[in-house]
Amino acid sequence: MKTNSLARTLLGMLAITALGACGAAEDSGSEPPFEVENVAELDEALGISECDTAPIGQSFTGKILFTSPRTYSDSGCTKAKVLGLVNPLRNVVLRWEDSGPTEAECSDSYLKVIGYRKSGSSFINSHYEHKFGVWDDFLGCLFNVPPLSFDATKSYKLAVTARNPANATRKFHLETVLP
């Protein structure tokens, strides 16, 4: 990991912790800036509702260290990467890895991950995070995505996307961290 990326990640985590401790924006970034009847409707509107049956594009065993390209759209999962995790090491962190977004774009940009746990020969929904950006004058656009925790004895697949307000894909980074 680059020192700059590590510093940005640590500063972001500290800022998010500080905001939570002060009671400011208690659930900031967790709700979309528009009303949604249900999650399935939102997924369909964002073009990733079909990801539950999409094939895995790339797999990792134990540890994951992955940075997406800026443009992606895996087979069966529009504008998302579908990644496999076999016996993952507990916690995985997801972060924005692209330039921007600007202050004006921040609240309409988002990171999203849908996790599926292997059950028999199919996958069932097990994780869901969808976070819109929250602007910080010092750190820029922050996405309050908590670490994803996994059972190290199971297999999973993740459908992940980062998008700007124009709905264009942006780079994201996934990495295993120690608990």
| Main pleated-sheet profile | 5 strands, mixed
Share in helix: 10-25%
H-E string:
HHEEEEHEEEEEEE
Question: What count of structural domains?
Answer: 1
Mean pLDDT: 75
* Share in β-strands: 35-45%
| Rg calc | 16 Å
Distance between the termini: 18 Å
Net shape? globular
Low-confidence stretches: 1-39
Secondary structure layout plus pairing:
Layout: H1 3-22, H2 39-46, E1 58-61, E2 65-67, E3 81-86, E4 91-96, H3 103-106, E5 110-119, E6 122-132, E7 134-136, E8 140-142, E9 148-149, E10 155-163, E11 172-177
Parallel strand pairs: 1-3
Antiparallel strand pairs: 2-11, 3-10, 4-9, 4-11, 5-6, 5-10, 7-8
Give an overview of the whole structure:
The strands form three sheets. Strands 1-3-10-5-6 form a five-stranded mixed β-sheet, with no helix packed on it. A four-stranded antiparallel β-sheet has the order 2-11-4-9, with no helix packed on it. The chain is an alpha+beta fold. It has one domain (3-177). The protein is built from three helices and eleven strands. It has helices at residues 3-22, 39-46, 103-106; strands at 58-61, 65-67, 81-86, 91-96, 110-119, 122-132, 134-136, 140-142, 148-149, 155-163, 172-177. It is globular, with a radius of gyration of 16 Å. Helices cover 18% and strands 35% of the residues.
